[in-house]
Structures are given as C-alpha cells and as structure tokens.
Amino acid sequence: MSTALKLGSPPVTGIKMGRKHGSLKASKLKVFAVDGDAGDTASFPSFLPKEVEKIKDPFVRSLSKRMQRLPVQMGLSESCIMSSCIKPLRQSNKTSPVVLLHCFDSSCLEWRCTYPLLEEAGLEAWAVDVLGWGFSDLASKRHHLYQLWKSYMKRPMILVGPSLGASAAIDFAVHYPEAVEKLVLINPSVYAEGTGELAKLPKSVAYAGVSFLKSLPLRFYANMLAFNGIPFLTILDWTSVGRLHCLLPWWKDATVNFMLSGGYNVISQIKQVKHRTLIICGQHDQIVSYQLVVKLHSELSNAILREVPGSGHLPHVDNPKCVAKLIADFAQGDADVDAKSQFGLPQLTALPR
C-alpha cells in the first residue's frame, strides 16, 4: 500500500545479525537473548495483546517483558495517561538520557535489537511509544513526550527518531529546545507534506484504508521490502511482531485520527533546529531517497552524516551493533572519530551518489 509507505517506514521490524563492530560484540547480544529465554517463565505485561505469547523472536520476548506503563499527567485538570515504554534498569544524573522514538505505525519493540547494546554501552536508554501509536493511549504526541520527559527524565536528552519518528523528533526539538541536548535522525522521513490528500478522505474510506494497513499481506510485503534474503517463517514471525500493536482496541481510531489530522509537516521547522544532529542512513534504503538525506544534512546548521553499509530502511534492526556504536559515540561526544576508526564508515561529505 503506497499510502502506508508515504506515511513513514514499513511498520514491521526484525533482526538480521551483521558483522562485529567495535567493542559491542555479538556475544553480549547473544547473552541478552539467552537470558531472555532463561527467564521466559516471566509473564508478559497484561496490557499487551495475548498474541505476544506466540512470538518466537527471543529479543521481542525478552524486551516486551520489560515493558511497563507509566502515568503521565497531561494537565492540571486531566487524568493521567498510562504511557508504555521500556524503562532503563538504572538512572543517573551524570549522563544524558537517550530517548528512542519509533517509526510510523510501530512500537518501542522496534528497538529490541539495539536497545540491549545501548545498555551494554552504559547509556540510560528509554524506548517510548509515541502517544497514539504503539501500546499507549491516545493524546497529543508532542505534549505527551514533554510531560513524560518532565516527569521522569528532567535532563536534556538525546532524542532519536527513525523514519517518520524523525519528524516527531524535529517537531519536539523546535517546540521544546530546552529538553533536547542532541538529535539522532535515522533514515529521516521529514519532507512529506503531512498525510496530504489522505486528510481529506471521508471517515468511512479512511477506516477502510486503515483496516487494509493492518492486513497480514500488506505487513508481509513491507517486511519483504525492508529486508532481503529472510526465511519465510522468520518473515511471518516479524509480521506478527509488526502488527501486534494493531490488535489494541484504539489502534484503528488513533491511526484514522492521525491521518485526518494532516500528520507531520516539519519542512518549515528544519532550519530552526540548532541542536547538534547525527543523521544515520542505510546504504540500501528503498523508502527515503539518499538525495533527501543529503538535502536535510545541508539544511541543518550543525549536523554530521553517517551511512551504514548494507543496511536498508531500518539499520537499527538489520545492523544494530553499528547503529548502537554510532549513537553511543555521538552521545559521548566522539562520533567523528569512532565512526571511521571502528567501522571504516565513510566520513560523508553529503555529495550525491
């Protein structure tokens, strides 16, 4: 469905273990997976659909059991919104929190491969569901993220946004610059003019389109587009992961509301971003063109650009060690050095291919 791809990334995720990079070794990731299996008797959170029990991916099973809902007060006269996230095991005032958003029509489980590596690197990582997406309730996305940050983090954060999540990150950074220290934008989808003509659809047609967005064939096709050479049974499992949040009772209403609201249009906000920014792009991304990534790099006043070889639209999924190292180095202030020395990644000058 071209409409779904216009809104952001394929709404499915998976894992394809890549090469070893830097000090984040594959063995550590394996330990995490084994530990997750060893503790598989632990129960899944009650707010997750029961279908999560059928997921075979050990990274999903392990991380989903750490999911929790935190109360977020949206206003003085409003009740709390129960907001789903993966909360760090340890918090420290000595480091900046790294807050991981996700793609359109996805959830924080998208970070199941990279998240444990960020923890191994000593970062205080939060994987949060953008409100109205993932496993959270409905509300204002930007204001909700601010209230979540104000209630639980309270220090300038490194905000990470993949695909359409990059639009959410830019929108947030422009409106709440004091809450952001740095930005990381992964294959950023930031030049779409919102949802375009979809915002004018009659509600009945919009609901029909959203029902198709939930369908297994479309989700399966999105996996095929995002990844190559993946076994059939693995793709089926990833398809189940990618549509898990669609089984929540409010998902259809949330998606239609987002579509009819006009969605994100941050084109006019890009040049207002003054924060230090790391742009990560996958070499074989079939969703966001390299030319648009180059354009974004040129329009941001303080940005560096890194390409992940062999990766597609979701490098934090198909090359988690590389992405985790890039984020960790950027968070610690030495991305310019380690991106080249540890990975042999090109020091891109943003010239067209």
UniProtKB/TrEMBL annotation:
Pfam families: Abhydrolase_6. This is AB hydrolase-1 domain-containing protein. The lineage of its organism: Eukaryota, Viridiplantae, Streptophyta, Embryophyta, Tracheophyta. GO terms for molecular function: catalytic activity. Gene3D superfamilies: alpha/beta hydrolase. Residues 98-321 form the AB hydrolase-1 domain.
